[in-house]
Amino acid sequence: MRIVLVGPPGAGKGTQATRLAGKLSIPHISTGDLFRANISRQTELGKLAKVSMDAGNLLPDELTIAMAKDRMQQPDAESGFLLDGFPRNVSQAEALDELLKTEAITLDAVLDLEVPEGEVIKRIAGRRICRSGSAHVFHVSYSPPKKQGVCDVCGGELYQRDDDSEETVRKRLEVYHTQTEPIIEYYKTQGLAVTIPSLGPVDEVTRRALEALEREDDGK
């Protein structure tokens, strides 16, 4: 299967992408991983990405698309893939459609992980990270440490990352609503978008997603 996973920050995309890709025996293609891999290997695309990032700029759509294209053409993706973080806007979605058309393949589904905005803020703003090199993660509501502000594992100080602050999360949500959310409507017009409620246990969300994919496959 060829799947796109969409959802706001804090929806659990990374967790569900890994689980779904494993269940379906297809590669999980994350744009973040692609950027890091290309930069680490110093590929031509990686060099271009590093120049852009060092200048404090967002990566151009053309560069993101080129990296995704290169990854999707690797042998392990011949029978399918799960895209996580791409496409990020309608322009990228249109470019993906053109790319797939040249390869004579199509997407099977676009999974939209839906979670209330208040829950997104609670999930992200509640995270606390250990300052020691261990980087253990806790949550003030869902997995609090035994002693406030202290890591259960190594006794290190727990802190909130700057990009986990409520103000930053709200800004990230604004970017998601203006740039990424429109692709859901774009794919709805193609009959591909399926909304998956992302509240509840991780296993339950995975089950909902797999059932939705099965229904989509049966309907084709």
TrEMBL record:
Catalyzes the reversible transfer of the terminal phosphate group between ATP and AMP. Plays an important role in cellular energy homeostasis and in adenine nucleotide metabolism. GO terms for biological process: AMP salvage. Pfam families: ADK, ADK_lid. SUPFAM superfamilies: P-loop containing nucleoside triphosphate hydrolases. Its main location: cytoplasm. Residues 30-59 are annotated as: NMP. GO terms for molecular function: AMP kinase activity; ATP binding. AMP binds at residues 31, 36, 57-59, 85-88, 92, 161, 172. The lineage of its organism: Bacteria, Bacillati, Actinomycetota, Actinomycetes, Kitasatosporales. PROSITE patterns: ADENYLATE_KINASE (PS00113), GUANYLATE_KINASE_2 (PS50052). Belongs to the adenylate kinase family. Keywords: ATP-binding, Cytoplasm, Kinase, Nucleotide biosynthesis, Nucleotide-binding, Transferase. ATP binds at residues 10-15, 127, 137-138, 200. It is found in: Cytoplasm. It catalyses: AMP + ATP = 2 ADP. Consists of three domains, a large central CORE domain and two small peripheral domains, NMPbind and LID, which undergo movements during catalysis. The LID domain closes over the site of phosphoryl transfer upon ATP binding. Assembling and dissambling the active center during each catalytic cycle provides an effective means to prevent ATP hydrolysis. Monomer. The gene is adk_1. Pathway: Purine metabolism; AMP biosynthesis via salvage pathway; AMP from ADP: step 1/1. HAMAP family: Adenylate_kinase_Adk (MF_00235). This is Adenylate kinase. Residues 1-214 form the Guanylate kinase-like domain. Its EC number is 2.7.4.3.
